[in-house]
Amino acid sequence: MRLDPWPAPCARTRIDATVHLPGSKSLTARYLVLAALADSPSVLTGALVSRDTALMIEALRQLGVVIDASADDGSTLRVTPARIAGPALVEVGLAGTVMRFVPPLAALARDPVVFDGDPAARRRPMAPLIDALRALGVTVEDEGRGYLPFTVVGTGGVSERDVVVDASASS
Known about the structure:
four-stranded mixed beta sheet, three-stranded antiparallel beta sheet, 16% strand
């Protein structure tokens, strides 16, 4: 079965919006990644405070993004984008969003970024993501395992081409 690539929507003008975050670790992590890639600082309110979001915050900080919690409970975050940089060590814990969303960001760094996680995370399949990064011309050192730990050796950018990612092996 062949699936046609889905063209991701792209803003044609500057976006100035307020987004109210639901209490979701998955959405909080995704919004943090989007804010890290933005052209200017973002403020996320209502961010879920959890181990997974703390791991995402620390992963982005390791890559040079500045993230400050301004609410007493840590649910309001100011994210100041920066040029993604290494070298870095990213601890993913068991957070699927960290292990799958941050390696593509690491490809934008000019130095190696090592990814590792909890023992159970080392059993989660990473080969589809690693293969997709390689299809974009990114060097990934994983000793042929297709699992954590691995190192993304960024070059400051990725080639522009269509990539198919098989997401059937993991949620």
